[in-house]
Each structure stands twice: as structure tokens, then as C-alpha cells.
Amino acid sequence: MLTALPAALGQPSRTATAPAWWRDAVIYQVYVRSFLDSTGDGIGDLAGVRAGLPYLRKLGVDGIWLSPFYPSPQHDHGYDVADYRDVDPVYGDLAEFDLLMADARRLGLKLLLDIVPNHCSSEHPWFGEALAAGPGSAARTRFHFADGRGPDGAEPPNNWRAMFGGPAWSRITEADGTPGQWYLHLFTPQQPDLNWRNPEVGDSFEQVLRFWLDRGVDGFRIDVAAGLFKHPELPDSADPAADERSRDSVNPLAWNQPEVHEVWRRWRLVCEEYTARDGNERLLVGEVSVPTAREHAEYVRPDELHQAFFFDLLSAPWDADAFRTTITEAIRDIAGTGSTVTWVLNNHDQVRTVTRYAGEPGVEASGLGAARARAAALLMLALPGAAYVYQGEELGLPEVLDLPDDVLTDPIFHRTGSRKHIRDGCRVPLPWSGHASPFGFSQGAAGARPWLPQPEWFAEHATDRALADTRSFWHLYREGLQLRRSLPQLGEGSLRWLESPPQVLAMVRGDGLICAVNFGTEPVAAPVAGTPLLSSGPCADGVLPGATAAWWTGDCPTP
To answer: Fewest 10 Å CB contacts: which of 132, 251, 420, 440?
Structure first.
């Protein structure tokens, strides 16, 4: 049950030019292809994002992060970039981007772009030049070209595996028709890795940053931010099988090399140059996948990235002790650098939260997955630091698990033949209204088929229904965001744990706000008397039900 908010709370706006707006911002991730289609071709676009900005402003987020919309052959839906300084016609053009930028600014929403520096598209002009130029050429030093092993060079230069499946090397045919060198790709053959030991690569990306900063963007989400540099000798991996499509470990010879930190220092200086012009701090937030919070903290030192996504909360099992340990380590190691923790529960690469928290097949039908997802959302919004919300999470969308093989587009499926780890299920276009596909997603023509099929049950999660139902995920997120803006105890600040029963997590934020989560299935006594200010489920009479989170204000227990 959601208690009514006092009228005075409303939705006060933050100062648009606050020097550290990002420290406790809540950013909404827009997967452009699946957000809203303005033309009726079944693919979301920038004009659709622009049309959806009032909805996001009403939800109460501070800004948006756009997935790649640059010219691309779409082998990995934009993460294979052919031109970093333009817009793919399927999404619009630069004029449409400028309109989007202007509308975001008018509505007080920050706008972040997704930049992909580890690799580009095999259709990028640089790669075409490298193929034509031949072995030993300057053009090939922008990438990782190497001779093969064995008497005829028929074996890859080393035993590395690609994270999306298969060998991390592909052999080319030279201009004269003979078998030639191999090139490195840690994801797909259509995404050759750039060689950041070549200064030309770094110089080019600085110009890319400036191109978009000059158009007004507020910062960048950086793809594969722990990648970029590879061991200079490209030696064999000790355990190549563990390097292939692993969430828990990555090839240490191709990841987290010390030289990468100099890139972020250079990019930070560029952002600070623009910040000095108008006082609006430009943000760098990295996709950093490293084994420990301590290593994570190295990326957010004061002269490097402002923030980096902390994925450990996303991957933590549904267990009070696991969550407490994860949160404690993050605050100790990451906030200790002077940055703030950047919390996430989902993104475009992960199984949706409702389904992930269901625990096992068939459990989701009982509502347990949804209840846990609601509680986790309220917990995340209560934590000190920033938070990112993936589109559709505010609708409680489950993962679409039964997409037919013939509609799957994820290169992981096509490289491995396995449905394990595929990401199409969380990328199905959003349902906006109505009772049948396209559920208002395609605006330009009635009955347009979305690029991935929407199941009939999407009607239950459509935005129009969510807005009309005060018990919905949408209202939980909106009221949580309103409180986060209005209460000084939330956002950046202190956290103190309270003693609590097993499988209950309770914390004090600032002065006089308690957030408690019951990870168990049985009701427990609430840590504070009285009616909660906000709860993820029915919560009254001094009882905190199972799989429920709640916020209270008032006198807090002393340490």
C-alpha cells in the first residue's frame, strides 16, 4: 500500500547548474531502439525519445542516458559504430538530436550519450583503410593486427576467447587474395578492437567528445571502460574458457590494464574545461567490470571518472547479509575516493529484475519476483549516491523468455547457438497503451510490427494502466523519486546500519529516516512505530511483510 504524499513535497526542481548534480542523480536509461517509434517503422528513434521526455519528467528522474544512435550496420545494435559524429538515419539526424537536446534542457533533464571506445564497426573507415593498406602499415596500428601462429599462420596469434562466444581473432584475406593477418575482437568479428597504444586513437576520441559537448550534452556513459588496453605482448590466457562470456571474470590480459587510467585522466580534463565555461559539471560514468570494489574505486579517483556503475548490487543474491556486505564494501571503498556509489539493478544487458528475483521457473506467477523487485527499487533509491533505472523497470516489466529463435537478434545467440545470456528478452519495445501490439510503441502507422515481438501480456504493464493504478510500480518509483528530491536525508549523505532480525536489512539515512527491507517470506516487527511514509507493499500495524521495503521518518534507535 502506498501512503499519500503530503502536498508540500511535490516535485521541487534542483538547480540546473549545481556543480555536483551527478552525485545523487537518478538517471533513466533509454534504449532508443525500444523506447518509442515516431515513424511507424517498428524501431524507436530520437523523435520518439523527444516525445517521451514529458513522461520521464513526470516520473521524476534527473536525466537520461541514450544507447548508441550513431551510424552503424547494427550487428550489435549500435555498439558497432561506423561514425562517432553523426546519427544513423534509422534514428533520425543531427537536427533531430539538436531538438532533443533543446527539449531536454527546457525540461531540466540532463542528457548523457553512450560512447564506445574499446571497439568500432568493421565498416568504420579506419578499418577499411587497414584492410587495404596491408601488413606493417600505419593504418593497421590503429587496431590489433598480428601474424598467425604455425608454419602457414593458420592459427590465431593467441588463445583468447571473445566474450560473445568463439575465438577473439579473425583472419582476413589480403588484397592479393592470399590468407593474411588476424585482427582482435573481444566481442564479435564485426567489432574490431581499437589499439589505444596508438596516439591517433586517443586524439580522435578527444575530438569526438568535443563534438558532442559542443552540441550541449551533459556527459557520457563509457562502454567497456575497463578495457581499451591489452597486454603489449598479447600472451596466451591461462584459462581462456573462463574468459568467454563470463559475468564474474574477464581476461586480465585484455582488461583493467594500468594504462587505461591515463585515458580517463585526459577525458576528465576535457570535461573540466567545458565545466569551467558555464559551471555545469560534465559527467563521465564508466561501465567498469572488475573483481572487487577496491579495484572499482581506482576508476573514480578525483582526477579520473566521476562515477562507475557498481554492478555488485545487481548480481547479489536475494539475501540480507549479501546485500549488507555489498553495500558496506561499496561505500567504504568507492565513496572513500570522494566519488559516490552509482547503484544499478538492471540495464540492457541483464535479465529484468522481476524475473531475476523470481528465483526459479514458476515462482514469478506467485508475485514473489515482482514483490522483491519493488522492495529492491525502494532500497536502491534510499542508498547514498546516484542510481540508474533501465527503461521498463518502472513498469514492472518481466523478461520476455519465449521469443522464437527466428526473431532473435543478439549476436551472442548467433555466435554460440545458445539462448543462455541472450539479451533480446529485456529489449522488447515498451508498451505504452492499448490491448494489442504495438501497444502504442509505433506512433506513425497503425499496426506497425515492432522490431522484436511484444507478448500479449504486455497489456498488463502498459504505461497508461500504470499511471492509472496508484498501486503500480510506476507510482512506487515516482513517489520514491519525489521523496528523494524533497527529504534532505536522502541522496548523498550518511548511512548507519541498525540491528535487525535475520533476513531483515535496516538502515538510518541522515537524521531521522529509516529504510528497512524484509528479505524473508514471513512478516517481522517493523523497526519503527507508526505508518511508513512509503512502502513497496502492504505495511501497517507495526508489521513489515515478507519481500517488502518501507521508509519511515521520526525518532531513530540510537547506536
So the answer is: 420
Q: Where are the alpha helices (DSSP H) in 256-340?
A: 260-278, 293-297, 312-315, 320-333
Side chain identity at residue 464, one-letter code: D
Residues identified as active-site: 223, 273
Give the whole-angstrom CA distance, residue 414 versus residue 422: 10
The per-residue pLDDT of the chain, averaged, comes to 91
Rounded Cα gap, residues 88 and 445, in angstroms: 21
Which residue type is seen at 245? R
How many angstroms separate the Cα of 412 from the Cα of each of 116, 288, 294, 400? Answer: 18, 20, 30, 17
User: Cell 540532463 identifies what position?
Assistant: 110
DSSP annotation of 37 = B
For residue 140, the 8-state DSSP code is G
pTM: 0.93
Burial of 540 (0-12, 13-18, 19+ CB in 10 A): middle
Compute the distance between CA of residue 139 and CA of residue 127 in angstroms, rounded to an integer. Answer: 8
- pLDDT for the residue numbered 14: 37
* Cβ–Cβ < 8 Å for 357, 519: no
42: left (phi over 0), alpha (psi -120 to 50) or beta: left
**C-alpha cell of residue 318:** 536475494
Look at the alpha carbons of 308, 311, 312, 314 in this order and tell me if their dihedral is positive or negative.
positive
DSSP class of residue 1 equals -
Low-confidence ranges of the chain (pLDDT < 50): 1-19, 247-248, 362-363
Radius of gyration of the chain (CA): 24
| The pLDDT value given to residue 361 | 55
